[in-house]
Amino acid sequence: MLQEHEAKTVRKIVLYITAPLLLIIIAACIGLFVYIRSALQPVDPNDKTPIQVEIPIGSSVYTIANVLEKNGVIKNATIFRYYVKFKNHADFQAGNYTFTKAMTLEQIVGKLKTGKVVKEAKLKITIPEGKQLTQIATIISQKTGYSSKDIMTKLTNRAYIDELIKKYPSVLTTDILNKNIRYALEGYLFPATYSFTEEKPSLENIIETMIAKTEEVLAKYAEDMEARGMTVHQLLTMASLIEEEATEKADREKIASVFYNRLEKGMPLQTDPTVLYALGKHKQRVYYKDLEVNSPYNTYIHKGLPPGPIANAGEMSLHAALHPAETDYFYFLATPAGEVIFTKTLDEHNREKAKYIGKQ
User: Fold this and answer.
1) Which one is the CATH code of 51-112: 3.40.50.10840, 1.10.287.610, 3.40.50.300, 3.30.1490.480?
2) From CA 225, how far away is CA 246, in angstroms rounded?
3) Residue 293 carries which DSSP code?
4) Any transmembrane segments, and where (predicted)?
5) Phi, psi of 118, rounded to the nearest 5 degrees
6) How far apart are CA 128 and CA 117, in angstroms?
7) Domain boundaries, given as residue ranges, for the chain
8) What is the pLDDT of residues 267-317, one digit of tens each?
9) Are 325 and 251 in contact (CB under 8 A)?
């Protein structure tokens, strides 16, 4: 009887503790459901007052959502972005639009696909794959007239970087603030051609357009990242290594498999581009003395991924980082002709190395 009484007491205590928690969770879920449902509805079904909105050339979904929220066309920019992603909408057009607060999200999306460009691009900036932040600063400088020094000062300004982390939380995290990282935004300015309607847009506009593009591209890989258990920072870091090692003829998925195989076995990645990044030099060939450079980026002396990306990476390398081939290769070597030879053992690798390096 005593045990039964104690059991009842325990059940009552558990009930008293869990019941309020359960009610809080239920209330929170209901609140979230109501909030999202409300955000998906028109701002004001009865207000058909025309609202003029301009969507500039090169605007990402992130930018468009913010413009619409700022003009009172939608209730919540974040919910709009998730709606667009969930519905798989794309191909939004730049242009002048007339919206109303009574429009549904589907009506707004439909209209955004039929816009006419209002202004021609006065400036185009092309950022190729495999470029480092300093090289990107030079490209921007050549196109805009801003000095490379001013651009790098902006790109490395801690207060500005903190602002960007708040603006783009799905892409920029505190991972980029690691003290071992040379440049926080290295690898985060996506390689693409960017169009601007001004001859000399602000540096903030240029930088944030590129980060918004990164956000837009990575959104497509969110499920893949989750499946591999990778963070954005890890993905961009791995993809940058693949990008820097790949040649035009290279099989990026096989290169990725080598890196993952070595990580799984606890072997250092031993990839030369990380040594060159550590040295801060562009060289045709890495020598044995270079491999001793004391840097957290040197993957010959440090196991695992380097602290961060060593360059920007294109979609092919991003895809390879998330979908590596299944191989038992642990080594690869790029020949002078651009072919990449994959091998399983160090002896095989050294034989191929002697064969091809001797010809350089």
Assistant:
1) 3.30.1490.480
2) 21
3) -
4) 13-36
5) -85, -45
6) 25
7) 51-112, 123-219, 246-310+324-357
8) 999 999 999 999 987 777 777 787 888 899 999 999 999 999 999 999 999
9) yes
